[in-house]
Amino acid sequence: MNLKPLNDHVIVKPVKKDEVTKFGIVLPDSAKDEKPEQGEVMAVGSGKLLESGNRATMSVKVGDVVLFKKYSPDEFKVDNIEYLVLSESDILAVIEK
Q1: For residue 57, which of 69, 44, 42, 67 has the smallest C-alpha distance?
Q2: What is the pTM of this model?
Q3: Other Cβ atoms closer than 10 A to 69
Q4: Which of 30, 37, 54, 92 is the most buried (most CB within 10 A)?
């Protein structure tokens, strides 16, 4: 992928949810069509431009798995692969494993 997000934007590859949860609950078809809320960071911008002219340090890095607001990202495809672009402020947490 040759995409470089600008400013405080992050490009994320959505993580597909399992059809059966780890507790054995089968998810209905309507749940499968829900927008993703988790994804792997594929690229990060250079950071938000501050009034001082400096750039804020990004709090996520490539390879992080993040939790974000469901309806905040914009969706697009590159080479038939779905990606999401969102602002760093829309990221709620980094999921540590």
Answers
A1: 44
A2: 0.77
A3: 14
A4: 37
